[in-house]
Known about the structure:
Shape: globular
CATH architecture of the largest domain: 3-Layer(aba) Sandwich
Number of strands: 20
Low-confidence stretches: none
Largest sheet: 6 strands, mixed
Number of helices: 14
Strand order of the largest sheet: 1-2-6-3-7-19
Number of domains: 2
Mean pLDDT: 95
CATH topology of the largest domain: Aminopeptidase
Strand content: 15-25%
Amino acid sequence: MNAPVRPAEAAALSAHVDEAWDRRIVPALNDYIAVPAKSPMFDADWAEHGLIDRVVRDAAAWVEGRKVAGLKLEVVRMDGRTPLIFFEIPATAAASSDTVLLYGHLDKQPEFNGWRKDLGPWTPKYENGLLYGRGGADDGYAVYAAITAIEALDAQGIPRPRCVGVIEASEESGSPDLPAYLDALRPRLGHVGLVVCLDSGAGNYDQLWLTSSLRGMVSGVLKVEILTEGVHSGDASGLVPSSFRILRQVLDRLEDSRTGHLLPESFHCEIPAARAAQARATAAILGDEVWKRFPWVCGADGGLALPTTTDPVEALLNRTWRPTLSVTGVEGFPDMASAGNVLRPYTAFKLSLRLPPLVDGHEASLKLKTLLEDNAPYNAKVTFHPDGRAGALGATGWNAPELTPWLERALNEASNTLFGAPLGYIGQGGTIPLMSMLAQGFPQAQMMVCGVLGPKSNAHGPNEFLHVPYGKKLTAAVAQVIAACPA
Length: 487
């Protein structure tokens, strides 16, 4: 292991990072947020619209403009796929043989509604250290932070290993394009010893948080058709079954609607003892904030709406190691103002099934399709079309490998130096498909999975923000950990 970063060096790294965020990163993110570069799942005509290409070009130009010694950058393109930024920077540590792989993405979730009246998804606003707008925190900042961390080390003459960057543009669609790029780039990646992924979250803004696990996901459209066209509800109801009622029956096969418990055992897995112990430790730090941080509709004036559990340990495990179903979109319903007395011909739901980290996403997708489609009530036409490409349906979660002593020490030193508090461990309920891919391709690599998505940051929803003070400290922490990589 390299010598630990000395206090004076740590202070210099932080000063460099702070200036870079204020002078270069925040302005770049303002421009980035203003571009509605929605992921292909949410913009089928993304190629014609050119918005993903625009943010990729802007980020690539920013990186090349930093003039990091030896940096080579390429925007890699494959027919029919979103573009990907690949950069490589040679080592400055003479004996270093490992490579650090830094990851982020530039595609975004759609607008959603409910934004504060002075905010909007594509109108960046910097207020009290928070940068509002879609995609800045999830995770457009990653490429800028990664380059800044490397730049800070080089400015201080602190040796570091070779670094490569993979910045994709289909993550919010489940990263369907990433496997092909990773296969093509594999010879250029080198021996990956450390992966730095900045697409995750934090339990609070008071210490460095390491993501210990990620859930997988199956998403897709469940559709129930009973008629070829809508008919008068007074004429047909009581004879023609409601497509919505049939859909409810089908979902009853999957979920206990009273508790939210997923019924098929194949969608569950045993929670490792080490992860349960970490959940207990994290619960002791966060307490009731684990569930109180959400924007409950019944607040102080109307009593507090209750979560599925108020036990902080169970709350953490529910959102990280247990499967959960969400309905994220509907079709077949007219607007309220146009809702005549018509028995609708079909009902369609967009389903999002979060899977425990150890459940295979592709297999779960096939099992879910069979479960929902077989033996349809009333012989209705029931179809479930999972998202993804053939052979790669669903996304498998990820359970972090055991930390090596050098990385655990480096992370704790960075957290104590920058925050005055030790490293925290937290599982995340979201999905980063890359991590499962890298775990298979580079089983010996260590993983630093972190991010700025802390309390109230609300990725994917309204009023998403990037906590800039935390982003600065996280960037400096990345620099310190890279410097600590074994020679």
